[in-house]
Amino acid sequence: MASSIKLILRKKPNKEGKYPLVIRITKDRHSSYIYTGQYIEMKHWDESNRTVRKSHPNAVRLNNLLLAKLSEASKTIITLTSDQLDVSSQAIKNKITTPLSKINFKEMAEGYLQELNANKKINRYITDKARIGHVMQFASNSRLTFKEVDEAFLRRFMSYLSVSKKLSKRSVINTLIVIRTLYNRAIKHGVIDRKHYPFGKDKIRIKFPETEKVGLTKEEIVTIEALDNLTVQESHVRNVWLFSFYLAGMRVGNVINVKWSDIYDGRLHYRMNKNEKLLSLKLPEKVTAILKGYKKNMKSIDDFIFPEMKKANLKDAHDVLAKTKTATKKFNKYLSRLADKANIDKKLTMHIARHSFGNIAGDRIPIQKLQKLYRHTSISTTINYQSNFMHQDTDDALEKVINF
Q1: CA distance 312 to 317
Q2: Which domains can be identified in the chain, with CATH numbers?
Q3: Which residue of 47, 151, 292, 314 sits 20 to 30 Å from the alpha carbon of 246, by its own alpha carbon?
Q4: Mean pLDDT across the stretch 36-60?
């Protein structure tokens, strides 16, 4: 029976709800699949023509890439089947995927970054692009292969990041995570054999260093609440920070994107931009009091509560990110002034609002309720986070030992 080869969209979505574009090889009613590494939404696939629709932002690039892969696979099949009368679909697949070993680290990284950008994961795109840039700069080789990215290479690279780039341990680990992601992709697509994998036991182990999370105390927050003689801008920044704190340490990106339409039935309804989870929180009276001060500036129900995003181009993810970073930088500058006025010697930032909530919650709120407030997927994440602020048991034990 003659073998056939087709480009199809497999009906098995990933976590983002996108479907993989694959090359299906069929021989003697047995099929094997070669993943192209490209994922799209179902609406962008033209089943009759087996192409990516023009509605996809990268339709031309994707169709050219897929056509090239399909053409290469077809040539391989013709050559292979002319030499052998009986060859399985798996054998054909193995022969086709062998040339993938020629794909280098940079090419795999570029495809990864294109996906992030296309999916509007702009913040991650920017940070991971910089991390990949560190790898290429260190290697000084645009044709760096995955075999060359071995354990010895990574240990030298880690030292380079720490000494030459002066990156923190956390930043070094974050860079290794990107490399690991690319390596796993390379293994999945047949670019490199798993036996070369440089991560894991007795190899390069990725372990986040312990960091101290410092939060304000109840007394320090009361002091901030009671500050008077503030400038208009200082008062605004205090409101934004307290809004975040009162709502379980709501992230700054979410705070400045809250609209009046998100508030109804005495609750705030919003979607976290970190994990896209939908939240619904009852509005504390202190939050209601803050909202009253901004009500006079409301132009419509779809208007932002706080002014920072009112001039942002919401259709441009890059502009939204830029506006968010600018706002955060401004907030942190004024928060430093507020800390001075309140005689607080801790570094006061927007992010410390989350730590402050955790610090005051301590071990007084059941961990399951904290998990819901933080919207952590796993309770172990909440336990690890909250352990930074739960000191009562150890404090009591210390007192029992030394008080003699």
Answers
A1: 10
A2: 4-99 (no CATH), 105-196 (1.10.150), 218-361 (1.10.443.10)
A3: 314
A4: 89
